[in-house]
Structure formats: C-alpha cells, structure tokens
Design goal:
It is built from 6 helices and 2 strands; from the N terminus they run ααααααββ. It is mostly helical and 155 residues long. Helix 3 crosses helix 5. It is found in: Cell membrane. It is a multi-pass membrane protein. This is Major facilitator superfamily (MFS) profile domain-containing protein.
Length: 155
C-alpha cells in the first residue's frame, strides 16, 4: 500500500511539474522539455538495478528516496507559493524527482526479490503491477482535480 501511495504521488508530480513549467514560461516547448526530462532517467533502469542488487540495505534506499522526493515537492510548492520558483530550478527538481522515482522503483524490485519467498513472488509482483497500473492511470485525474485553470486551489 505504501508503494501505491508513492505511485499516486509520482503521478501527481508527473502532471504538476510540466504544468508548472508551462505556467512559468508560457511555452509548449518548455512543457515538452520537462515532460521529456522526466522520462530520460528510465534509460538507466538496467544499470540502477544491478547497482542496487549489490547494496545490502535496500530498505534504507527506499525510505531515503521517498523522503527526498517529499522534501523536493514541499520545497517546490513553497517556492511556487512565494513566487520565486525559477525555470532552471524546476528543471533540476524534475531531474532529481525522476532519478529518485527510478531509484525507488528499482530498490523496491530488489527488496521484493530478496525478501519474498520464491513461491509468493508471482502473487506479490502481480498485485504490485495491478496497483501500479491503477495508480498510474488515476493519478493524473487526481492532479487535474487539484488544479483549477492552471492555479493551485489553495490560492
């Protein structure tokens, strides 16, 4: 369930950060660049998995990357509400969030392969895939409800 909640958060920022980039720049090119930047770290998935397989404390990697993501989102929202968020900083946030999401996904996969009995892995992975698919598909909808004409509801 923690993974599902994390996936919802990832879905929210996947929509929110490009939207914020467009709001800052009024440029479709910048929106596309941010959306593209979000997907580039996925190319590192095979390397990340091999590296994490050699790390003993994957649980610490999972918790640490989740906490760092939360801190980045809080900082982003704070900077945006103070009207001092700049596009360059948003690019850095997008890159960091994408790498942390990849790290979290890879570490979770390694953690499951190490700690779930071989007989139960198919069931655990299937359940995880279903939850991930559901959250991947509903998260942008949730984000859409949280925005109103490109403005945060809390303003």
């Amino acid at each position: 369930m923690g993974s599902a909640l994390s996936d919802v958060g990832n879905g929210l920022y996947r929509l929110a950060l490009p939207w914020m980039a467009y709001d800052l720049s009024h440029s479709a090119f910048v929106l596309a660049a941010v959306a593209t930047l979000q997907s580039i770290p996925g190319l590192l998935l095979p390397i990340m998995g091999q590296w994490l397989d050699r790390i003993i404390h994957t649980r610490k990697v999972i918790v640490g990357s989740g906490l760092l993501q939360a801190m980045l989102i809080v900082c982003t929202v704070g900077l945006e509400h103070m009207h001092i968020l700049q596009l360059g900083f948003l690019y850095v946030i997008v890159g960091a969030m994408s790498v942390l999401s990849l790290l979290l996904f890879s570490a979770t996969t390694v953690f499951i392969s190490r700690n779930v009995l071989k007989e139960a892995r198919v069931a655990v992975n299937s359940f995880g895939a279903v939850l991930s698919t559901i959250t991947w598909n509903i998260s942008p909808g949730i984000a859409g409800f949280l925005f109103n004409d490109g403005e945060w509801i809390s303003r």
